[in-house]
Structure formats: structure tokens, C-alpha cells
Amino acid sequence: MEKYVLVTGGAGYIGSHTVVSLVENGYTPVILDDFRNANRVVIDGLTKILGKKPIIIELDVCDQNGVKEIFESYKFEGIIHFAAYKAVGESVDEPLKYYQNNLMGLINILSNMIEFNVKNLVFSSSCTVYGEPKGIKEVTEETPKNFPNSPYGFTKWIGEQIIEDTFKANPSLNLMNLRYFNPVGAHKSSLIGEFPIGKPNNLMPYITQTAIGKQEELIVFGNDYPTIDGTCIRDYIHVVDLAYAHVKAIVFLAGKFGSFETINIGTGKGSSVLEIISAFESETGQKLKWKYGKRRSGDVTEIFANATKAKNILEWEAKLSIKDAVIDAWNWEKKLIEHNEK
Ligand code: UFG
Question: Could you give all domains of the chain from N- to C-terminal order, each with its CATH number?
């Protein structure tokens, strides 16, 4: 019998890697995506990796009737809910777009889970819910949440709260918030990866785009932070490792009769911006053009995961390194030229 898992946003960056990991572990993903923020080339890539075309339903996750029909058609083992907007800066300019899409999508999924008695949900949350951690920069799930710096961050913050409250009212559900740190890299095959729309906001795509000549030079945002080299510190996690954490989450939830957990998904190690640049240069042999600029408003100085809970509860830990991530990100960037030429 097929074990169907609904993957909303399954054509996106983390979603597409999770689709691969689900298939590798015996599940049948059902992708729900309307491609507003995803590229159709991902489906070609997935088809090549998987050896067959995955199931795709082209739909807005906020479409109440459409999503209901999907729940009528499949008996899902679980849902992994990725579909959401994710650009921090854009969310400051267009808050309603973010609150509408990110919260209505989640509410639609939860309502259908209750109506159709689907028990298991994994929600894409973010370390943004910690805001700027006070004191220790290695955060556990018990570290108090702080208000995030953007409407995007608030949609994750409130999303977690919606899930917790839904669990309290429906204690037979199995719900999990995964708080991602900074996803980087791409699938080894270079057949899937991130398609940044417009100028990238995130560090890794900006590095690879600068190295390939799409961007003039990388600006390192601030060199006067109280860190080892003055640049910010983040926990960069390979997207393939991150994807597998979702499979482990679905496996964990499948055995539960009422469960609510929040788990950090990171490597447990922080790296500075300069360390990432240096890893990129040494692993790829590319010289990167960069200079220091002003601090970017809203940036947290330093944060990295305590990943013990993921290890204990999900039996998951990151296996791939920053070296793997920079090589895979670079190979993907080179491959993107072919896609852009199509
Ligand atoms: N950085 C640069 N230059 C750039 C881009 C980034 O120096 O051109 C630096 C940033 O200042 C930061 C680090 O690289 O120190 C990482 O920045 P990213 O934008 O890649 O990642 P963030 O940590 O800012 O953002 C991530 C997720 C968001 C999430 C946020 C919450 O991408 O979705 O963490 O902490 F909201």
C-alpha cells in the first residue's frame, strides 16, 4: 500500500529535496504547489532523480475547495507544510501578503486534517522565532522565543502558536514544528536546487552568483559585530540533511497517539560570514570579489542550534559539512546557466 505524504510547496527549495528523501525512504509524496515561487525545471530534475514523474497538484494552498478535494482523494500518512512566502525584506513592504498566505495556508491545512482525520503534520518553522538570543547563542528549544524582526518571522512565530493551540483542542493529533537554521547547498546531482527570484537575499546564492558573474561583488554586511572576526554567525545546514529530518519527523509522528513537539534542525555549529567565504574559495578554487559594507538592519549577531533534541527524538543529525554545501551550491549555480539558457 502506498504511504502518501502531502508536501505543500513541494516544488520549492527545501520541498523538492524532501520529495527525493521521502521517495528514498518508501513514501509516495503528493506535491501541492502553484509554482508562483518555484520553477518548473525542478519537476524535470525530480523526474530524472526519481526515475519517474512525481504526483503534482497545481493549486494554491489557500484554495479551500481545492485543498478539500485533495484530502477527499488521498488518505495521507502525513503532511509536510512548506508552502509559504519567505523573503524577509519583502514581508516588511507587503505584510498583508505574508500574513494572508502563510497563515491562511496553514489554517486551511489544519482544518482539513481535522475534518478528514489526518493525524500527522510537520510545519516549517525557523530559528527566526528566537530573535536575537539573549546571552548564550546556542539555542535549545527551551530558549525563550523573542519577537522576530519581520512580518515573515511573525508568520512563523504565530504559525507555531496556531499549531500549539490546535493541538490543545485536538490532543489526538501529532504535530511538529521544525525550526530550521540556514539551509544551504543542493542535491549532489545538481538536478535540483534553489532558484532565487531576483537578487538573492541569502548569503550562499549571493556568493555563487558573484563567483559566476551574475552579481558584481558580495557585500559582507558589517565587520564590527562582537564575534571572532566581526561578522555574523549562523548555523548553515545542508539542504539534503534538512530534507531527511522531515522524513524522520514523519516516521516519528506515525507511531504517536497525540504528540506536539518543537525541534531545532541545525548542525550545532556556527560559522561566520568570512568562514563561509573562505570555505567557498578553498573548496571551489574560485576567487570571490567581496568587500565590507554596513550592517544589514534586522540581522542577528550570532545564533546556532543546540541539535540534541533532534538526535534524541528523531534519531537525526547533520551528516554533510560546509565543504559539501559550498561544492554542491557551486555545482548547482553552474548548472543553472543551462536552465536559464532554455
Ligand atoms: N550576508 C552578507 N551579505 C549578503 C547576504 C547575507 O553579509 O549579501 C550575511 C548576513 O548579514 C548574515 C549571513 O550572511 O550575517 C546570513 O544571511 P542570510 O540572509 O543568508 O540568512 P539570515 O540568517 O539572515 O536569514 C535566515 C533565513 C530567513 C530567516 C532568518 C532568521 O534565510 O528565512 O534566517 O534568522 F528569517
Answer: 4-185+237-267+306-319 (3.40.50.720)
